Amino acid sequence: MSEIGSSQANPLSYDRLTEFFEQNGILSNAAEVHGILTGMIAGGASVEGDDWLLLLSDLIHEGQSFKPAVRERVIEMAADICASMRDPDLGFNLLLPSDHESLFERLSSMISCVQSFLVGFGVNQTNLSGLSEDVREVIDDMVEIAKLDFAVDEDEEAERAYFEVVEYLRISAMLCFNELGQKAGAGCATNKILH
Fold it and tell me: InterPro entries under this entry (predicted)?
């Protein structure tokens, strides 16, 4: 698994992005910010105009305005998520610590990412009954994964299980986007709002 949010575009690693958010007073780490943004976009939220930035600020910055550098970075992240979700080669990836980090740290970040995805997704999708059975099933699975309390054996089997769950979450996020985010149409054309 790559440590970057998508196969290209975003040059920042999980660690550097987490450090960037810390330095700018954002309480969430890179996995959480990326997870919330991914959930919002996959759930059909529009990332045009400023409404989504205000909502994101409520979720990760206690409603305070973002500094210009943070605003620019989250706009870039949203554009990157949109582009990778639309990538015909399935280029979307979760933003998680690199494989060099301990399995415990990677699992912790994965669970934070899933919890954040569900928060972002829930912004637009409060009633799951109108969604396809596939999407309802992956959201149910994510809810279960988000509740995981784990003891980690740093062995090959645990590593394999981790990668399988990450891959499942990656595909699940794209499934949600294909059903709901695509319907938002131009709402995911974030490059139009870069000034």
Answer: YgfB-like, YgfB-like_sf
